[in-house]
Every structure is written in structure tokens, then in C-alpha cells.
Design goal:
It comes from Candidatus Falkowbacteria bacterium RIFOXYA2_FULL_47_9. The protein is α/β, with parallel strands linked by helices and 351 residues long. The protein folds into two domains: 261 residues, TIM Barrel, CATH 3.20.20; 67 residues, Alpha-Beta Complex (Type Iii Antifreeze Protein Isoform Hplc 12). The protein is built from 13 helices and twelve strands. Helix 9 links the parallel strand 8 and strand 9.
């Protein structure tokens, strides 16, 4: 069975779901907001909190335009470069953020959004795993570069075809690094429910030969919970301090109380799914005798009288002869007198 270890948190098909609070760029360039996001993620019960590591010039040229969803969420048209400059997390902030993560017992992660330089920076910080965003799924040189550090890899697959996903998986495995989880995702913020396509996640499970999770961009919490019921071993979801804050991702994120509710619901999923064995539960075994029925005398039945459909009935409780004895008893002679409302036993009838 495939299993990977991120900072002593095991990820597998049978392990508790690994939940990542995607702080992303929702810190708006503020250290105080970044620290508050760490606290909110820890309070919600997430396993990890993830940021994005980049310098704007390492990500995009001056000609790059923002996506339509970013234009809508920001309310203004601007270049990607201008937008990203405001969302950089200065390197001097990282030690404080990592220290807060350690204090709150939550794993620090960050996406090396700025390419090779960001991978090197995060490697120097000894990050527990590399999480690569969907935009870099076809950036095979970057995937191979990060994979060679032999750390666990988490890779978003938004915007990708199955063929592109397989190429990315092969690229990473070719380095000898088999510690990989891929995340089904739809790169739209917020994502319409008609574009979620959770069955595509199941296709990845059947064909990609790696662990599969889900990165959610829908509004609300029901879709990631559904993903867990379908077998997602990792859930990633955006977290914000307030959905009304300015920025490209806040409006498609969960606030702290909503994120906590999602985590609690996800933790209940394996309990609810329970066992594949169909048998009475412990609580049902107590109820069973009260809820099931037995053979019972409807009228007084004299010794030697024949059991008939008029004097023999089926009623609760289920502590006597089971109903499947009904046709076996019909036509038999009563061996002794039975009063009305009495549960029939094998001692009450003869051959």
C-alpha cells in the first residue's frame, strides 16, 4: 500500500485525511495576517498551513495579464506583475511564520511559485514537503528539480489532461522520488459545482499509480467532504481571515469557523463509512430483540387444538420463535394450552 510521511504525518488510503489550509497569498503581504492565518489553521485542526514563495519577477513578465476570475475578485484590471508584487511574502517573515507553526504544532508548507530560486529557498528552510501548484504541472524541469531533493511531493492537476498528469508523474518518478500525491482540482476561483468533476479524481486513482487527493475551490464545505467519501487522502482548501478582504483569493476561501466545521466533518467521514461487513452493530443488537417479531398466540389455544392463521400471529418482541417458523407451526397440534398474547416456543407444538 502506498504511504508517504510528511513530518510524521502519514498519508495513505487508510490514514486520516491530511488537511492543508491554503493560506496562499491571503496574508496580503502582512506578517501579522500571516501569523493570524497560522493560528486560524491550527485552531481549525488542519495538519498543515501552506503559503506561496515567490518574487513577482520570477513568476511572470510585464506582459502577463491577470485571469478573468482575478479581475472579477479584485474589481480592477491590472497586470499579473503588479498584482503579485503586492502579494509577495518577504523572506524576512519566514522564520517568524515557521516559529509560529512549530509553536502551534502545525506543519509549515509553501509552494515554490517562483521556480528554481523558490525551491532552493524552501530547501534551505528544510521544508517538510514540496507542494507544486497546477500552473507548474507542465513545468517538467521544475518538477524534476524539486523531486531530486527526495522530499514528499504534492502536485495540483488543475487545467490538465490525463496525459499531462501522467507525464508529470513519470517525470517525478524518473528521479527516483516516489513520494507523490496528486490533487484533482479545477483552477477557477470560485469553482462552479458543474466544473468540479469528482469522477475525474476517481479516474486519477485508477490510472495514475500514485496517491490522490483534492484541492477545492468551490464555495462552502460539502464538495471536499464528498471528495473524502470518494477516497481523497489529502484535502486542500483556501483559508482567509475575512472573505471581504481585498485580494484575488479571499472571496473563494473559507473563514476560520467554516474551515473548522469542514475539518470536523471530514474527521467524521471514516467513522460514518465504517465497515464493509454487513452485520448488526453493537447498538442494533440491543434494539434487535425489541424491534423484531416472534410467533404469538392471538387467541387462547387449547391443548390438542390446531395452530391456524386465526389463532397464530406475528408480533413484537423478537425474543420467541422467529417469523420464519410460521408456516412450520401452522397445522401442528398444541401440546399444551396457551393463553392469548403468549410467545410460542417449540414446547407448545408437536409433530
Amino acid at each position: 500500500m502506498q504511504k508517504i510521511n510528511i513530518a510524521n504525518h502519514f498519508i495513505s488510503k487508510r490514514s486520516p485525511v491530511f488537511i492543508i489550509a491554503e493560506a496562499g497569498v491571503n496574508h496580503n503581504g502582512s506578517l501579522d495576517m500571516a501569523l493570524q492565518l497560522v493560528n486560524a489553521a491550527a485552531d481549525a485542526g488542519a495538519d498543515a498551513v501552506k503559503f506561496q514563495t515567490f518574487k513577482a519577477e520570477e513568476v511572470v513578465t510585464a506582459a502577463g495579464k491577470i485571469a478573468d476570475y482575478q479581475k472579477k475578485n479584485l474589481g480592477i484590471a491590472q497586470s499579473q506583475l503588479d498584482m503579485l508584487k503586492k502579494l509577495e511574502l518577504p523572506e524576512k517573515y519566514y522564520q517568524a511564520i515557521i516559529a509560529r507553526c512549530k509553536k502551534r504544532n502545525i506543519i509549515f508548507l509553501s509552494t515554490p511559485h517562483g521556480g528554481f530560486a523558490s525551491v532552493d529557498f524552501l530547501q534551505r528552510l528544510d521544508v517538510a514537503a514540496f507542494k507544486l501548484g497546477s500552473g507548474d504541472l507542465t513545468n517538467l524541469p521544475l518538477l524534476a528539480y524539486a523531486a531530486r531533493f527526495k522530499k514528499p511531493m504534492i502536485l495540483g492537476t488543475g487545467m490538465a489532461t490525463l496525459s499531462e498528469v501522467k507525464k508529470a508523474v513519470r517525470c517525478i518518478k524518473k528521479t527516483g522520488n516516489n513520494q507523490l500525491v496528486i490533487l484533482h482540482a479545477t483552477t477557477s476561483y470560485p469553482c462552479s459545482e458543474r466544473d468540479v468533476n469528482l469522477r475525474a479524481m476517481q479516474s486519477l486513482m485508477k490510472t495514475a499509480d500514485v496517491l490522490v487527493g483534492y484541492s477545492d475551490h468551490t464555495l462552502g464545505v460539502h464538495v471536499p467532504i464528498m471528495a473524502v467519501t470518494l477516497g481523497a487522502c489529502v484535502i486542500e482548501k483556501h483559508l482567509t481571515l475575512n472573505t471581504t478582504l481585498p485580494g484575488p483569493d479571499h472571496s473563494a476561501s473559507l473563514q476560520a469557523d467554516e474551515f473548522k466545521n469542514m475539518v470536523q466533518a471530514i474527521r467524521q467521514v471514516p467513522i460514518i463509512l465504517g465497515s464493509t461487513v454487513k452485520e448488526p452493530t453493537k447498538s442494533e443488537k440491543i434494539t434487535l430483540k425489541q424491534a423484531r417479531k416472534s410467533l404469538v398466540s392471538v387467541t387462547a389455544i387449547q391443548a390438542g387444538e390446531t395452530f391456524t392463521s386465526e389463532n397464530l400471529g406475528i408480533k413484537r418482541p423478537g425474543t420467541g420463535l422467529a417469523p420464519n417458523y410460521y408456516f412450520k407451526v401452522l397445522g401442528k397440534k398444541a401440546k399444551r394450552t396457551v393463553q392469548p398474547g403468549v410467545l410460542i416456543s417449540t414446547k407448545d407444538y408437536g409433530r
